[in-house]
Write a structure and sequence with these properties.
The chain is mainly beta and about 375 residues long. It has one domain: Methylamine Dehydrogenase, Chain H (7 Propeller), CATH 2.130.10. The chain is built from two helices and 31 strands. The strands form eight sheets. It has a five-stranded antiparallel sheet with strand order 25-26-27-28-29, with no helix packed on it. Strand 15 and strand 16 form a beta hairpin. The longest helix is centred in the N-terminal third of the chain and has 22 residues.
Amino acid sequence: MYIKYIILTLVSLLVAINLALATLGIKTTSPSPFPFSPPAELQLKLSRNVYSVAFSPDGKTALSGSGRTVKWWDLSSGRVINSLEAHSSIEYSYSVAFSPDGKTALLGSGRTVKWWDLSSGRVINSLEAHSYVMSVAFSPNGKTALSGSSDNTVKWWDLSSGRVIKSLEAHSSEVYSVAFSPDGKTALSGSYDNTVKWWDLSSGRVINSLEAHSDWVNSVAFSPDGKTALSGSRDNTVKWWDLSSGRVIKSLEANWVTSVANWVTSVPNVVSSVAFSPDGKTALSGSWDNTVKWWDLSSGRVIKSLEAHSDWVNSVAFSPDGKTALSGSNDGTTKLWNLETGEEIIRFVGGEGVAIMPQQGNNVASPKGGRH
């Protein structure tokens, strides 16, 4: 864990160097956060990491952004329906999102947001007005999109024309996560500046700045009724916010600081991803402790800790019926979980396009969760 923490710190330093060079007008050849091409061994590791996962609106398929590709999975068969290639050999699929009708997808990678037709694998439009894109989201009507970037801005896009409707500028550092409200009129953004911003899209102004985290914010999400929000941070907490007042309703904290070698007492954990359940009563979080936690929001307690990943969990998502969950990890796998039992239903290996069923004694779990 300590070695991984050092690696992330070094990567963050490289990002800062690249941004500083850009500010001085010195352009680097790479559109990635690295001011140079990473070593081959690190590129191989990065290419296997699953950075983002998403359920289709009908819950029958899923997307996973892994390295330079996005896989579109059939959840019942474990088959790859289509594989969408990222923008270049040195860019990674940091954020993926399904359209509300489930027919198209967004991919944030490098300096562009690509809008894909899933069945044909064709790029419908390529949106370019950013530095490095960290997060993307579809509007509820599927006609517009949000993207958050290392240029400290949130862009609101018209998808058909590819033009920027508004550039939202109030963060003082990189924007790691964006989300639309259920009515599509407001947006959330989480940033390296430790804040969550709640935006009015029509005016482009900040309605409220939510400031209770002591370190950068990796992930944000709206509740289904649009009245509250979740944020996950490097400060080891998930915060549940009342948006109108800007008050923290609850701060969810588990045993997320891991002890290591004797000469180091502990290293900080990081909450990488958060998601609301469809009924708004529970939440998911993915973390550097390699687990997915399922929370009861009213009590603030962990209902279940899902433990089968062997490396950081980067992304989590609820199924539309709230009964299952997806997680993507640096161990190179995407996992589908049964929340009631806490068991892994199916495991997708990012680079192979194969589903590996978890062994339990002599039984093997089928893709539909039965036994054979």
